[in-house]
Amino acid sequence: MLSVSSVRKIFESPRGAYHALEGVSLDIAEGEFVCLLGPSGCGKSTLLNIIAGFVPVSGGQVTFENQPVSRADRERVMLFQDASSALLPWLSVEENIRFALRVRKIPKTRWRDTIDKYLQMVSLDTHRGKSPSELSGGMRQRLQIARALAVEPKMLLMDEPFAALDALTRRHMHTVLLDIWQRTKKTIVFVTHDIAEAISLADRIAVMSTGPQSTITSLIEVNMTRPRDLTDPAAGQLFKKIEQLLAPELLRLVELPGVH
Q1: How many CB atoms lie within 10 A of CB 98?
Q2: Residue 102, CB half-sphere, CA atoms under 13 Å: how many?
Q3: pTM, whole model, 2 decimals?
Q4: Can you say whether residue 43 is alpha, beta or left, with left for phi > 0 and alpha for psi between -120 and 50 degrees?
Q5: Number of domain units in the chain
């Protein structure tokens, strides 16, 4: 479904050029759940924005269903870490979804069934009249997921969507997301810096190096049945393996000029 081939990204600014990504390659199959994992500042979000079509490449190519990605489109929808900023605070839960349907020019005859379907899927049906400020952090993220699904994209791009949530809510959201993924068969690319989160969610984990010139250093298959128990010895071994892969990158991050 998605092919990232030898992608390079250089950001130009008055202070000079920053070489964010170099030689990034990754193929993602339809229906797959892939996590991009690495330390803060390694270019995970930059790569996700390139896949979304928000940011152009400086070299290499990204194709989606064999077509070059040159701009954002309705087939790839981004979900952000801060749901409060992503949602429209002056609209109700239901109106937030209706707004997305209107923007994407979904026929009005489908609005009611679509809104009902996805509010029920994320267990927000009884909260449809509330404003986002009346929802908990986890509920706001569920609304963001429902709004994204309502426009029927083929791929969900998730940029650390649960990072701001407390540990209990975060684990609950893992369960919610995996249930939605298994029911909808959507392809998901999920950015995280949390090893345990990646092991809990992903079919494959793409481990990224510290920038500048960040790249994917390892692709790890997570061959564990779901739901996953992180106390399982297999999960512990995988955690240790990924930790060892990231250790040199974390050391390099500390040694970078200006980083303390």
Answers
A1: 20
A2: 6
A3: 0.91
A4: left
A5: 2
